[in-house]
């Protein structure tokens, strides 16, 4: 989004501290999300993501700090702000006794009391997630992907300005995943600001304009996907098929200035390099100088997962 809304803060968290006994869950944590952004919040389990979101939503008290949404201080009774917020939780939260349409209408009614006012909202939410043919179905009759879509519709039917998506694509098929991601991008294009958490790095890289990595209740890094990749040593991953790689040649590859590691299993040579302009040429030149024959080769640039692993020392799924 490139309009004036991007100059304004949708969400500002300042100096947030949360303790559970002797454990410091949030350590003077700061966060700012501009209006119009799709903001990715990443961190390994136990990093403080869930605590942060619960504090922002005033579902959890905190020791010190402030949370402001659209310039106003958030609190348990800030109902005017809560009306502008939507939450799509990781665990599907719907009523099995109600139909698709009844579920969406119920959750919309928590924010929009008058049925006449929410009639069009419910219809728009049903159409938005593609559940028109399933409006009379109960959740138990829906596939996993359709159930996730219902979960989203329940969270957005009241047309919020700020939406939290907590791993909305867990355990869904690729077609449903694409539909969900495209839906989030459409919501953003229509004006919604999005805070997005996921264990799927490719999703974050696809839809998020800004990404924060947090751990131990603190911010580790912040920027676009490309900016984050520029913060770390991790460079390209080079893979080469070769059947006649000798120990001397492998040692020379490991000694290349930009090489971080080189592993050979008798068929594939995998070299991980720091960022550099001539990594592939240097590896191939070493192979050719030794007379080694090689076949198929690939060179992959650093991924967001490489960045995450280097900055936190943990896989995101830990």
Automatic annotation (TrEMBL):
Native source organism of the sequence: Bifidobacterium xylocopae
Keyword Transferase: no
Protein name (record): ABC transporter ATP-binding protein
Entry's Gene Ontology molecular function annotations: ATP binding; ATP hydrolysis activity
SUPFAM superfamilies to which the protein is assigned, alphabetical: P-loop containing nucleoside triphosphate hydrolases
All copies of domain ABC transporter, residue ranges: 11-241
Membrane-crossing segments per the record: none
InterPro entries from the UniProt entry: AAA+_ATPase (IPR003593), ABC_transporter-like_ATP-bd (IPR003439), DrrA1/2-like_C (IPR025302), P-loop_NTPase (IPR027417)
Database matches in Pfam families: ABC_tran, DrrA1-3_C
Lineage: Bacteria, Bacillati, Actinomycetota, Actinomycetes, Bifidobacteriales
Alphabetized UniProt keyword annotations: ATP-binding, Nucleotide-binding, Transport
UniProt key word ATP-binding: yes
């Amino acid at each position: 989004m490139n309009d004036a809304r991007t100059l304004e803060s949708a969400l500002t968290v300042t100096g947030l501290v949360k303790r559970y006994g002797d454990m410091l869950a949030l350590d003077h944590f700061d966060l700012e999300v501009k209006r119009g952004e799709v903001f990715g919040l990443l961190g390994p389990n136990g990093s403080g993501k869930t605590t942060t979101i619960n504090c922002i939503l005033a579902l959890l008290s905190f020791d010190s700090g402030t949370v402001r949404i659209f310039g106003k201080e958030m609190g348990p009774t800030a109902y005017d702000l809560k009306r502008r917020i939507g939450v799509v939780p990781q665990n599907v939260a719907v009523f099995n006794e109600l139909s698709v349409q009844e579920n969406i209408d119920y959750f919309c009614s928590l924010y929009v009391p008058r049925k006449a006012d929410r009639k069009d909202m419910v219809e728009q939410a049903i159409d938005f997630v593609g559940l028109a043919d399933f409006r009379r179905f109960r959740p138990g009759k829906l596939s996993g992907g359709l159930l996730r879509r219902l979960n989203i519709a329940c969270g957005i039917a009241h047309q919020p300005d700020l939406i939290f998506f907590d791993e909305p694509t867990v355990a869904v098929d690729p077609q449903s995943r694409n539909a969900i991601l495209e839906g989030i991008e459409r919501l953003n294009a229509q004006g919604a600001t999005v805070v997005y958490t996921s264990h799927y790095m490719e999703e974050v890289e696809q839809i998020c304009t800004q990404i924060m990595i947090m751990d131990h209740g603190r911010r580790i890094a912040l920027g676009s996907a490309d900016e984050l990749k520029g913060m770390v040593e991790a460079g390209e991953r080079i893979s080469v098929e070769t059947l006649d790689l000798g120990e001397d040649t492998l040692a020379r590859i490991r000694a290349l200035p930009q090489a971080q590691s080189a592993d050979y299993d008798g068929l594939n040579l995998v070299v991980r390099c720091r960022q550099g302009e001539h990594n592939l040429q240097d590896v191939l030149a070493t192979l050719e100088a030794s007379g080694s024959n090689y076949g198929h080769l690939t060179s992959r640039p650093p991924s967001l997962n490489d960045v995450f692993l280097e900055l936190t020392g943990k896989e995101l799924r830990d």
